[in-house]
Every structure is written in C-alpha cells, then in structure tokens.
Amino acid sequence: TNYTDKIKNEEIKAYAGEIDSVMTKVEKALYQTQNKSGQDPLNFPIRLTNKLAHLNSLSQMGNTDFPPTDAALKVKEEIAELIDVELEEWTIIKTKMLPDLNKMIRDKALDVIILEENK
What we know:
Layout (H helix, E strand, L loop, with lengths): L2 H4 L3 H21 L9 H4 L4 H12 L10 H39 L11
C-alpha cells in the first residue's frame, strides 16, 4: 500500500496523484517502461532516449567518409527538443509541485508514518 492510499486528506491525495501522473507521463515518454525481457523491445516501441542514443551511435561510428545527413541531424534536433519538453515537466515537478506538496503536508500536520491496520 502506498502513502496516498493511507492518507485521509483528499486535497493532498489528489495533488499527490496528479504529481504521480505527470511523473509517469514523463517517464513513459523518455523510456520504454514495459521492457522486461530481451524480446520486449520487439513488442514495445522505443522511446525518446533510445531514439536519440541510436542516432548518436550512428553518427559516431567512426566513419568520417559519410557524415550524418542533414535529415538525420534534423531528426536528432527534433528528438532533443521533445526530450527538453519532458525535462521541463520534470523540472516543474521538482521545483514547484513537490515543494508545494510538502508544504501542504506540513500545513495540515499529517502523519508521515502510518501503520497498516490489522484486518
């Protein structure tokens, strides 16, 4: 059971859930979270970080006779911009949303250690 399941304050619970949703969205945009086995990359599409890494590896294979094409450089730039958008979301979570949540918890004087009740 996670913390948000145990707290009773609905405002804090909703805000913590919102933070979790945004973090999950960012993580899934950047990284394929469904890969568990070696064959899963065949079943689930690669995400932004894998795409950028692949383009980087292609452009740095030591083949100076054939530098990256303009199209490859443009795609790399587009992927980097998409990654930056996700990183901006993550920065908002770290610098605004989490401090706001901590302040809400302090202001409401919520218990931070909650034991599971016997059933």
